[in-house]
């Protein structure tokens, strides 16, 4: 089908159902054991893009791993999916991306799974809140939105690579959730990256823009660091009304920007955005994760279910910036990753 801004995640998943189930014909006429696709999605609470992503993938994938820091929310997500799909194979993983110790604990659990991992979707984002510092001393939005996911991705890379070695010819993927708003900001500030800088919050959305720029750069660099054995993509899901803008503690910022009304609902009178449904918002993620044609474009940025590299701001498409960000993040973590 022709993908567009109106395409839903369900439509994309149905299009690539054979890829998601593993019966994908990736190996031409060769007779090989069937793939049993395993997908891990971070940030899967109800009324979020991650939940919709999990919901449509659970119809086809052999196993979908859902993550979150709140046990009750994880249970609600699993129950909602199984109410619709009783046969869905769901596994819960506690993961607090704001804590390096918690990330390491969760990664160790994933690495102990008997199955390889085929796709990692870094969907979770740091909530737009007043200035805060993580337990490890990082600016909390960057810690949750990028540093934690970066560490998690690298620590479970052996599981991703296992899917490649267990099925010769398969290329595992990592999808990073970014945003078109990355281009509004000035990119990653390498001088203050990850450091607690309350002055940045004079423009409350600036740290968010920086996180989204970092996501694009990481997707570009991942394939280079792994020499193509894992490919990364970044996606702009679009503007969607989710649990982020509806939370009372976040609503004030979106109201001040005129994005939502006093009830946290989309301000359609503003006319600046084309608001998407949850299904339309998750569509681009699903395509990045499973469209086989994208393997020819590692590191690509997708928006409205299309490759949209031309929409990436220069500060977030520069390969030197991608390398620099990776190196700086390793330095902050005190750990180098080799594949």
From TrEMBL:
InterPro entries: NAD(P)-bd_dom_sf (IPR036291), SDR_fam (IPR002347). It comes from the Eukaryota. GO terms for molecular function: oxidoreductase activity. It holds the Pfam family adh_short. Keywords: Oxidoreductase. The keyword Oxidoreductase applies. Belongs to the short-chain dehydrogenases/reductases (SDR) family. This is NAD-P-binding protein. It comes from Roridomyces roridus.
